[in-house]
Amino acid sequence: MYVGFIGLGVMGQPMALNLARTGIPAVVWNRTPERCEPLRAAGAVVATSIDEVFDQTRVVILMLANENAIDAVLGRGTPDFAARVAGHSVVHMGTTSPSYSATLQDDIRAAGGRYVEAPVSGSRTPAEQGRLVGMLAGDQETVAEVRALLTPVCHEMFDCGAVPGALLMKFSVNLFLITMVTGLAEAFHFADRHGLDQQLLQDVLDAGPMASAVSRVKGQKLLARDFTVQAAASDVLKNNQLLTQAARVAHLASPLLDVCHALYGETVARGHGGEDMAAVVRALEARSDSVPPTAAHAPAGPSGNTVASLS
Q1: What's the pLDDT band for 298 if we cut at 50, 70, 90?
Q2: pLDDT tens, 143-191?
Q3: What is the pLDDT of residue 306?
Q4: Quick one: CA torsion of 247, 255, 273, 119, rounded to 10 degrees?
Q5: Angstrom distance (rounded) from CA 93 to CA 150
Q6: DSSP string over the chain
Q7: What are the CA-CA distances from residue 263 to residues 45, 114, 150, 240, 256 (Å)?
Q8: Whole-angstrom Cα distance, residue 71 to residue 85?
Q9: Whole-angstrom Cα distance, residue 169 to residue 114?
Q10: For residue 309, is pLDDT > 60?
């Protein structure tokens, strides 16, 4: 059985390569054709059109940047939509709003297709290693089929019930990730401005109970000022915006998320959207550089107002 894969970006390309390298026959398509060449070398069929992908496959995986890209690929709102999705299982692995995913499922089912929501947790390196964590939502039969198919991509997968349960679970995970990496960046910035040895900070963190794969990888990036993209700051900002919207829909307070939203917005506005999310430290540095020396040295009271002393 051939499997379709559409969307060969930072995450999609290594995911599709893992499928192809483990012998799963794949038919791939990408808006930028050169992204398909490593897949061709790995034995995948490179389609010349979206329709060719759907014509040759029954399961089609979408790893696309946003809702507009998904609608365009599926031909949603046009006669092409039903022709493409009928008789197919469409697997949505990107990150969109939960409400969008729910309505997409409804439309696909109405057109005679099946739908699975399958977002993943992890960045480019886990994608290359086949070590992503998958979250699956949809009807049990189709989820079981997709779970088996994604074994070369995800080292663990979790059933999250009905759509949009998988996306909401990913949002919960991403909330922790975004606030954690932002806190780590602020810790390195704090140590830097106090003249501390940042390698020593990394060693202390690595030896302690807060150490994780994320803190080790992002800590090394901050230490080396290496912002080569694993998870782009612009993508993190998009995720943050989706998280904030979901919080508002549920009438949730999200104070940490709101601060991160502002910081990633500043990072992208300063031209660093294509860098790794650890580049949020640049926004922190810019904020510190704009603080007057007197304000920087005045301690803050419980309400956030500066006070002369703690006595």
Answers
A1: low
A2: 999 999 999 999 999 999 999 999 999 999 999 999 999 999 999 999 9
A3: 45
A4: -40
A5: 11
A6: --EEEE--STTHHHHHHHHHHTT--EEEE-SSGGGGHHHHHTT-EE-SSHHHHHHH-SEEEE--SSHHHHHHHHTTTSTHHHHHHTT-EEEE-S---HHHHHHHHHHHHHTT-EEEE--EE--HHHHHHT-EEEEEEE-HHHHHHHHHHTTTTEEEEEE--STTHHHHHHHHHHHHHHHHHHHHHHHHHHHHHTT--HHHHHHHHHHSTT--HHHHHHHHHHHHT----SSBHHHHHHHHHHHHHHHHHTT---HHHHHHHHHHHHHIIIIITTSBGGGGHHHHHHHHHTS-HHHHHSPB-TTS-B-S---
A7: 42, 39, 34, 10, 11
A8: 12
A9: 21
A10: no
Token output for 16: 């599709």
Distance CA 171, CA 293 (A): 38
Candidates 90, 86, 99, 85; CA nearest to 118 is 90
Q: Which amino acid is at 56?
A: Q
Cβ contacts of 70 within 8 Å, gap of 6 or more: 62, 64, 76, 92, 94, 96, 104
Rg (CA), the chain: 22
Short-list 181, 260, 257, CA closest to 215: 181
Q: How far apart are CA 124 and CA 264, in angstroms?
A: 19
d(CA 298, CA 132): 45
Q: What is the pLDDT of residues 5-39, one digit of tens each?
A: 999 999 999 999 999 999 999 999 999 999 999 99
- In terms of pTM, does the model score above 0.85? yes
Q: What confidence score (pLDDT) does residue 142 get?
A: 97
Helix axes 165-193, 255-267, angle to 10 degrees: 70
Contact assessment for residue 270 and residue 290, using Cβ atoms and an 8 Å cutoff: no
pLDDT band at 233 (very low <50, low <70, confident <90, very high): very high
